[in-house]
Design brief:
The protein has 497 residues and is an alpha/beta fold. The protein is built from 16 helices and 15 strands. It is elongated. The structure holds adenosine-5'-triphosphate and magnesium ion.
């Protein structure tokens, strides 16, 4: 077979390829031992003492790892990794499965078919993929994977944190997996550069922070990329917004309001931003700037830009600010900034102010009011010695709408505010809520009960824009009907309470 070493019987022709992290299983003890075994015949003696079966009860036992290491070492001895790396994923997997099955037989490992399958999968994942993370990466229901050192891995599913039984052999194996992930985007993570952002081939966003900064072993955080991106319809189905709020968001997106999406970590900002781009006309030229490309725009005339961290010598960094500035020379009609977190805020506001209506960005903050002060602080941090009032005027002149996303304590994600930035009164920025989510209590299962309601504003500030786009009918209907029904469509009495 192809990946199998030539000269299996003697071992004289066997030569191990240099051990590259991208080729070798992240199980370092096995790899480290492999060269020493060059001296012994490849085929293990046929009569071996039976090896204890691995215990497969979710959280794997030490014996499981012992058996795995034994089989793994024999595998490394038998296959030629350079040849194997030339095979297609499926063929390589098949090859490894064949050899591992043989090794299990020869070594006389006592195990059930199911246990054998588990071991086979595990070893394939180690050699070809991201080791113990593979089963988690294959699941589409997981939002985040959080590895806190070799022994502890959490996931977020349906808004809830769960501890998993995924475990790495040791921190070295975990570090090798991290290295393998980041090396695919040409980066390195080690003691000298212990922080690294990367992206998996499927688009998932990855952050690694390694020792000595991470005290208990490498911390790896993955925001899983959703293959089927969420749409506004689905957000309605999940109860994150109501049908009327959806209509209002669609109109806001279409009529080229400048939008800021505000929210805490993992509150659904990027998802909302993605949704807000759906109503954009197909002819519009859109330029997106992101730290790690997550947005999935459907419009054909889209240019995607990504920032770049400095290299090992500390050179070559391209910041968000560089991208936003460059955007302006690319004849954009809309500029979309994945996350505004620094001095690029100034450039984005400038762009919004100067004919790039319909630009959007997200920002970390807990309320629309806080979003304004965060924006102000970012501009001040950029070294502009402008009076506060001038900065606020600039903000109110640029941003039309703030949409607030929140992750509630029951794990559900809601749009809690659709707020207009009206203007200034003296030194104070005036905001006007169009739509709010009110928490009313919680049921016996801890699920939060509440309702979305319109605040009774019949003519929002962007009314004229809506008229220009022929959307006033839809807009006033959505605003009026959400005053009269709750999120389940039931009639409400007092809606302004
Ligand atoms: N309304 C929603 N209902 C259910 N799941 C959601 C909703 N919005 C977002 N999610 C899921 O929550 C996770 C986090 O969403 P998202 O990446 O949009 O958050 P974020 O605020 O941009 O996070 P970060 O601050 O890390 O950038 C994703 O897996 C996403 O699919
Ligand atoms: Mg995000």
């Amino acid at each position: 077979m192809f990946g199998r070493r030539s000269g299996e019987s003697g071992g004289a022709m066997r030569k191990l390829a240099p051990v590259e992290p991208s080729q070798v299983a992240p199980n370092t003890p096995a790899v480290a031992e492999a060269p020493a075994k060059e001296q012994v015949p490849a085929a293990p003696p046929p009569q071996q003492q039976p090896v204890a079966a691995p215990v497969s009860d979710g959280r794997r036992s030490e014996e499981y790892y012992d058996v795995k290491t034994t089989v793994f070492n024999a595998l490394i001895d038998t296959i030629d990794l350079t040849q194997l790396s030339k095979l297609e994923g499926a063929a390589a997997r098949e090859e490894i499965r064949d050899i591992v099955s043989e090794i299990i037989q020869i070594k006389n490992v006592v195990m059930s078919i199911a246990e054998q399958e588990e071991l086979l999968e595990d070893i394939c994942n180690d050699v070809l993929g991201y080791g113990p993370l593979e089963p988690l990466l294959a699941r589409d229901d997981i939002a985040d994977i959080m590895v806190n050192g070799a022994a502890v891995t959490f996931i977020e599913v349906d808004g809830h944190m769960q501890e998993t039984n995924v475990r790495f052999a040791d921190n070295m194996q975990l570090m090798n997996v991290c290295q393998r992930i980041v090396s695919q985007v040409g980066r390195r993570v080690d003691e000298s550069s212990p922080i690294c952002d990367a992206r998996l081939p499927d688009g998932s966003r990855v952050n690694v922070i390694a020792p000595p900064l991470a005290i208990d072993g490498p911390a790896l955080t993955i925001r899983k990329f959703k293959k089927d991106r969420l749409t506004l319809e689905q957000l309605v189905k999940f109860g994150s917004i109501t049908e009327d709020a959806k209509t209002i968001l669609e109109i806001i997106g279409r009529v080229r309001c400048n939008i800021l999406i505000s929210g805490g970590t993992g509150s659904g900002k990027t998802t909302l931003l993605n949704c807000m781009t759906a109503p954009i006309d197909l002819e519009e030229r859109i330029i997106t700037c992101e730290d790690s490309a997550e947005l999935q725009l459907q419009q054909p005339h889209t240019v995607r830009l990504e920032t770049r961290p400095p290299n090992l010598e500390g050179e070559g960094e391209i910041t968000m600010r560089d991208l936003v500035k460059n955007c302006l020379r690319m004849r954009p009609e809309r500029i979309i900034v994945g996350e505004v977190r620094g001095p690029e805020a100034f450039d984005l506001l400038q762009a919004m102010n100067t004919g790039h209506d319909g630009s959007m960005g997200t920002l970390h903050s807990n309320s629309p009011r806080e979003a304004i002060s965060r924006l102000e602080a970012m501009i001040m941090m950029g070294g502009y010695s402008l009076p506060s009032k001038t900065i606020r005027e600039m903000i109110t002149g640029s941003i039309d709408i703030i949409i607030q996303a929140s992750r509630l304590r029951d794990g559900s994600r809601k749009v809690t505010h659709i707020t207009e930035v009206i203007g200034m009164e003296e030194d104070v920025v005036i905001l006007q809520n169009l739509f709010v989510y009110e928490i009313q209590g919680e049921d016996e299962n801890g699920k939060i009960l509440g309702r979305h309601r319109s605040t009774g504003i019949a003519r929002p500030q962007f009314w004229e824009r809506a008229r220009y786009y022929g959307e006033t009918g839809r807009l006033s209907q959505a605003l009026a009907s959400s005053e009269q029904v709750d999120e389940n469509g039931n009639p409400l009495g007092d809606t302004n309470g």
